[in-house]
Structure formats: C-alpha cells, structure tokens
Design a protein that fits this description.
- The complex is a heterodimer of chains A (about 450) and B (about 280).
- By secondary structure, chain A is an alpha/beta fold.
- Chain A is built from 18 helices and 16 strands.
- In chain A, the strands form four sheets. In chain A, strands 3-2-1-4-16 form a five-stranded parallel sheet. A five-stranded parallel sheet of chain A has the order 6-14-7-8-9.
- In chain A, strand 7, helix 14 and strand 8 form a beta-alpha-beta unit.
- The radius of gyration of chain A is 22 Å and the shape is globular.
- Chain B is α/β, with parallel strands linked by helices.
- Chain B has two domains: about 90 residues, Elongation Factor Tu (Ef-tu), domain 3, CATH 2.40.30; about 130 residues, Nucleotide-binding domain of ferredoxin-NADP reductase (FNR) module (Rossmann fold, 3-Layer(aba) Sandwich), CATH 3.40.50.80.
- Chain B is built from nine helices and 17 strands.
- Chain B is globular and about 55 Å long.
- Chain B starts with a strand and ends in a 10-residue tail after the last helix.
- Classes of the chains: A alpha/beta (about 450), B alpha/beta (about 280).
- At the A-B interface, strand 5 and helix 13 of A face helix 1, strand 8, strand 15, helix 8 and helix 9 of B.
- Chain B: Keywords: 2Fe-2S, Iron, Iron-sulfur, Metal-binding, Oxidoreductase.
C-alpha cells in the first residue's frame, strides 16, 4: 500500500497510509484461496465473512463487498485502519504459512472508503428503549446492533464529540477524524441518538436512566484514567499524560493553535515513556509538532513492546529515538519549574513473570540523564471510576474494571451490561467491539424474556 | 446548544450569564462547576456554578474577562448560544452543621462562595463572610452575600471601598478577637488562597480552598488539573475542587497555572486585533 514518505509526513497530520487503488485492491483480493474452512473468520472478533467480501472485491463488485462487511461490522473504515490484523484475521490466513497473509484489513478499508451509496439495513422499531454509556468503539457497536434489532437507543457521551478514543486518542495521521465522523453518522442513520456533554454519574445516573424508561443499560465507558509513575518531578510544567497530550491535539486540534483556541507546548526535545500504541502515537505526534528529538523510553526491549509492529516501524522511519531497557527515576526542573531533563536507570530482563513476559530489573548505578523540555507519560490507563462510584451494587474487580458474566456481559446489577475497556482494562478497538456485539445479543434476550 | 437567557455586567470586566441547561440545573449543588466550549474552534474552560434555578432549568456563571475565551464569551448576548456545557462536575462543597464558618470570596471568587454560604446558612450554621477585591469597581454581590451571612466584611486592596487591605487581615482580626471559628472556606486567586491558608495554620483552624488549575475535559481522563495535596497527586476535577488548604502545594499550583502564559497572551493579542479592540482599555469589547 502506498504511504506518505517519512520525510514529508512528519511535517503534517495527514494520513500516512494512502489506501489501495481499485487495481491494487482487485489484485490483492485475487490472492485469496477461498479455503473450505476459512480460519480468518475465526480470527475476527466480530466474525466478518471475509472470503465472501474479498470475492466481491476480486469481481469488482465493491458495493456488495461493503454490504457483506456491514452485516457484522458497523465501523469498517475504522477497523480496517486500526485493528491489529497481524494478531487476528491475518494471523489465521493460510497464505501466511508460506507467503504473506492476505491483506484483509487493507481490503476492508478499501471497501469502506469506496462505499458509494450508504448501505443501510431495514430497521423495524420495537418501541423499547436502551441506554448506552459512552460513544467509543464499544458503545457505538452496541448501539448500532441494538438499533438494527429495532430498539430506540440513546448514547450518553461525556465529551463534546462522539467516538471516545477514536476521537481523542488515535491521531489524525492514523485515523482521520473525518472518517470517524462518517462512521458515527452511519450509526446515527440507524436511528441512534447521541447526547453529548452528558457525564453519566454526574449529569445523570444509571438509576435515573431506568427511571426514565430505559429497559437496559450498556456501559462502555472505557479505560480513560491515566496512570502516572509517581516519581519526583512528575507535576513539573511540560509533563503530560498521553491522554492529555493526545486530547489537546486530536480532539481540541491544538496542532492548529492559534487558529483553534486550545494551546499545547511544542517541545524541542521530548521524552515519551511507554512501549504501547499510545506511546507510539504520542511520540509521532510530538515529532509532527516540530520536536528535533523524540526519545521513546521503554523499560523492556523492542521484542517485548506491546505496540503493533507496523507502528513501531513507522515511528522508527520518522526518526523516533528508541531508548530501550531504560526506566525514568525522576524528572528534573529549572527554577521556573519547567522540565529540563529526565533521569533514567538502565534495566536488564530477568526471569519471566506470571504473564510470561520477562520482568525488567534495575541495574544500580547506571543512571543517565537526557535533556528534554517535555515528558509524556504513556504507561497505561485504567477505568474511570465515575460510573461505578455512582451506581450502587455494581461489582468491580482488579484496577476498577466492572465484573461481568462470561458471554452475556451481564453485570451484578439487573439490566446493566458492560463491555470494552471498562471490563477488560485498556485493550483494542476491535476487542471492545466484539464484546459489545455479544452484549447487544444478551441485552436483546434479556429484554425479550423480561 | 445552550441558550443565554440573561446577561448582566455586575462589575468591571465581570459578566453574569444565566444559561439554559436544565439537566445541569437539576443536579447542580454548591461548589460544583461546568466545562464550556463556546464554538467549534473553542477551547474547553471550567466555570463555577454561581447559582442555579431548577424550576427555570438555568444555571448562573460569573465570568471575568481575562483572555481570549472569556472576552469572546463576554461579547455574546442574550439569546445567543454556547455550543457545549457539560456538568455539573466536581464534588459538591462539603457541608457542616452547628458550626461557625468564615466564608471568604476574593475577586471573582465571590461568585462561587455565594451558593456555599447560602447553603451553610440554610443549614443553620453561623456564617461570617469576607469579600474582597483589588478595587471597588471589581466588587459585586455585597447585597446577596449580606443576605446569607450573619456578618459581612468588605475589603479592597486599595481602600476604595470598605476596609483597606486583604481578606486575610480581616480574618486575622476575627481570630484575634477571640471568635471560635470552626472552619474557613476560601475561594479566590491561588496566591490569595495560599496566603489566607497560611494565616489559619498556626491556629489549627480547618481551612478549605477551592482550587482553580488548568482543565481540559473536567472528568478525570487527562490529569491536566493535577495538584499535590498532602504529598499525593490528586485530580482537582474529580477529587476536588475543594481540598484542605493546609495540605495543598500552592507553589506548584501557581507554577502550573503559568504553563501556557505565552500562548494565552498570543491568543488574546490576535483576538483583540481581530475584533479591533484596544488592548489596554478593552474598548469595543
């Protein structure tokens, strides 16, 4: 697939991957072997009939291809871009045993981007109301599926734009906001109402939603609470959580300050702490804001990085400087309390821990400092406690996740279901969507049997 | 969209807005705030809920024009709309019974201290209030504050109205007069809250402040508003905005409030040029 060359793309926020042309898509689609028992479908958390839509692309029937995808996936232009296909559908592709697996994600993206007339299923209203908390990938998916079943669905979103992490977290250069808006419009076209500026737990509680006649509630409020490292200097000026940094840039469009009102510090030397996709997004964003040096500080090695390979490669091409097996010990400020350096200690990998990853161990006396004026902490997030705190009887587990029954995503509260990061902790867009799909089925069953 | 149903200039550069936001009004309690965004290119700013009318479905905010967004807001008129109003956010003010409470509002802080004093009074507490400003032209709501206070003291830095000096001077006089104060609540600029909290520390009087750090979302997802309280990092938007004034690291707060001063100045200058207003006298604003 064609991409913007690194030297050019670090100067803009436009999408890096440019997408297939019709010829490229058809020729890629023709590589599909059309297995008797296709494994790729199993690898897809929402179970798209992959061989069927790929066949339609191979035949040049793009309209039919997107219709098949939308039977299972309400947000294909997003999934085709941000799913980690290498560990899902494409991992199971038989072609991958010997050659390169079929580029399923790119074909899905192609079909979504080339959709001419918006394909929309027929919806017969059943007169029953369901509320959805949060308009991220989980909430949008649950809402769309329930709307297709005939429910009147209302989404309550705390921010002023829908999309959750799709709107505030994933940068424009990986997922253009125009694409997110188009997909949200599709969900709305199914009859879903989205109420913005509604902070569930503050503006309205889950109990009040039931009083207002909603028969079930799906909680998809995500894992938006940033973790800090609790090291000295973390509250100096110039230290951001990745959530704040990315929200300012993506949601508030601070990269266009002063045309837009939200400011951001454009660091000359930036340290990003962490090794996940969010760290890559923050580092690449800092580069685009004009930083000369962007250091990515990660306490394990490159092998152990949880970020997608593709994103790690993109980051390297764009000149992000990897500082591996290093962990920050303190952030150093000047007299005005602005960041001027970050002190790190070298690490080595010890024995594998219970998760199977080798635990990093400090090497005493190996401290070094990097001169930086900005630090972005991207070491993870946990569920925001606002909904749980204001909903009596909602059982939670480790790190504040909501406990649910397997398969049905039922919580400890009658009529309340939950899915996505609020249940699993920070994970992927597509796994949130997969859970939301299951929950939507369970909500339908629950309401029918009431 | 949230309609402005009332607008009034109540002091120099200080404007009161009554805005239709029935869902916020229904839940609002003294001490809480909203986050507003004026238009599509706007930033999100926190504003304290100075009053609410559940019947009319409106909330009242008092805004001092200090930079681009607040100046832009001050140009809106009755019938105009604010694009986004989210809330009520933050924890409500902690309430006490059977106590003598001194409520201090400095400058714009008079607006948020008002509903707290009112609620304390309604619960039967003895409420002594001190309101102050740099100068008489910046004072407002003396009458409203008098209504909800057993005693009211007014101070101005320059002595143009009431007693000359700072609120802290009046507070120290009350303390040294032997008044048995159970609690002091201070809302004002960070420096004023710092100085006034320091004054009560040697006397061991419980002192509550309402912090005003930089916020983005106001729902706990970014940590822009983090403050150090009792040695621990807390998010003012969800853990506060009220904290124990004796535990707050005010120097850190003051530094963090200056983080974007260059950008704020630039945005303000470009805006003032754009609307053709005079930078120093704010004519045409």
């Amino acid at each position: 697939m064609r991409e913007q060359p690194p030297a050019e793309r670090v100067k803009n926020f436009d999408e890096v991957a440019l997408g297939y042309s019709e010829e490229e898509a058809i020729s890629e689609a023709k590589r599909c072997l059309h297995c008797d028992a296709p494994m790729c479908i199993e690898g897809c958390p929402v179970g798209i009939d992959i061989p069927a839509f790929v066949k339609k692309i191979a035949e040049g029937n793009f309209g039919e291809a997107i219709r098949i995808i939308k039977e299972k996936n309400n947000l294909p232009a997003i999934c085709g871009r941000v799913c980690p296909q290498e560990s899902q559908c494409e991992k199971k592709c038989i072609l991958g045993m010997k050659w390169k697996p079929l580029a399923i994600g790119r074909l899905e993206r192609f079909a979504a981007d080339h959709e001419k007339d918006c394909v929309r299923p027929k919806v017969t209203p059943n007169g029953r109301k369901v509320a959805v908390v949060g308009s991220g990938p989980a909430g949008l998916t649950a809402a769309a599926d329930l709307a297709r079943m005939g429910y009147a669905v209302t989404i309550f979103e705390a921010l002023h734009k829908p999309g959750g992490v799709l709107a505030y977290g994933i940068p424009e250069f990986r997922l253009p906001k125009a694409i997110v808006e188009k997909e949200v419009e599709y969900v709305k076209s199914l009859g879903v109402e989205i109420r913005l500026n509604h902070v569930v737990g503050k503006t309205i509680t889950i109990d009040e939603l039931f009083e207002a006649g909603y028969e079930a509630v799906f909680v998809g409020s995500g894992a938006g609470l940033p973790s800090f490292m609790h090291i000295p200097g973390e509250n100096l000026n110039g230290v951001y959580s990745a959530n704040e940094f990315l929200t300012r840039v993506n949601l508030m469009r601070a990269f266009r300050f002063p045309e837009y009102d939200t400011p951001i510090k454009r660091g000359r030397s930036v340290a990003v702490v962490g090794g996940g996709n969010v760290a890559m997004d923050a580092a690449r964003t800092a580069k685009r804001l004009g930083a000369e040096h962007v250091y990515l500080i990660y306490r394990r090695g490159e092998e152990e990085m949880p970020a997608r390979r593709e994103e790690v490669e993109h980051a390297k091409e764009e000149g992000i400087e990897f500082k591996l097996l290093m962990n920050p010990t303190r952030i150093i400020g000047d007299e005005q309390r602005n960041v001027k350096a970050i002190e790190c200690i070298c690490m080595e990998l010890g024995e594998p821990d219970e998760t199977g990853r080798r635990a990093p161990v400090c090497k005493p006396g190996s401290e070094t400092t990097l001169d930086v004026d900005t630090v972005i902490i991207a070491i993870g997030t946990s569920p925001n406690p606002l909904v749980v705190k204001t909903t009596p009887g909602l059982k939670t587990g480790k790190h504040g996740v909501i406990e649910v029954e397997p398969y049905t995503f039922k919580t400890s509260r009658e009529g309340v279901f939950a899915g996505g990061d609020i249940v699993s902790g920070a994970a992927t867009v597509i796994s949130a969507m997969g859970q939301a799909k299951e929950a939507a089925k369970a909500i339908d069953e629950y309401i029918k049997n009431k | 969209m949230y309609r402005i149903v009332g607008k009034k200039e109540i002091a120099f550069n200080t404007t009161l807005f009554e805005v239709e936001a029935p869902e916020v009004a229904r839940k609002a309690l003294a001490g809480q705030f909203v986050v507003v965004r004026l238009d599509e290119r706007g930033e999100r700013i926190p504003l304290t809920i100075a009053d609410f009318d559940r019947g009319k479905g409106t909330i009242t905010m008092v805004v001092l024009s200090v930079g681009k967004t607040t100046k832009k807001l001050s140009r809106l008129r009755e019938g105009d709309h604010i694009l986004d109003v989210a809330g009520p956010l933050g924890n409500p003010a902690e309430m006490v019974e059977n106590s003598l409470v001194v409520c201090i509002g400095g400058g714009l802080g008079i607006a948020p201290i008002y509903p707290i004093a009112r609620e304390l009074k309604a619960r039967g507490n003895k409420v002594i209030s001190i309101i102050g400003a740099r100068s008489a032209s910046l004072l407002f709501w003396e009458d409203r504050m008098r209504e909800v206070s057993d005693e009211l003291y007014v101070v101005t830095d320059d002595g143009s109205y009431g007693r000359k000096g700072f609120a802290v001077h009046q507070l120290l006089d009350l303390i040294s007069s032997g008044m048995r104060i159970d609690r002091v609540i201070i809302i004002g600029s960070a420096i004023m809250m710092k100085v006034t909290s320091e004054a009560t520390r040697p006397y061991g009087i419980k002192t509550i402040v309402s912090l005003n750090p930089i916020m983005v979302d106001g729902t706990g997802m970014c940590g822009s508003c983090r403050v150090t309280v009792g040695g621990k990092t807390r998010f003012a938007c969800v853990d506060g905005p009220e904290f124990d004034g004796h535990e707050v690291d005010f120097d850190e707060l003051l530094a963090r409030l200056r983080m974007y001063s260059a950008e704020e100045r630039l945005a303000d200058e470009l805006y003032m040029q754009g609307v053709g207003a005079c930078q120093s006298c704010q004519k045409n604003l």
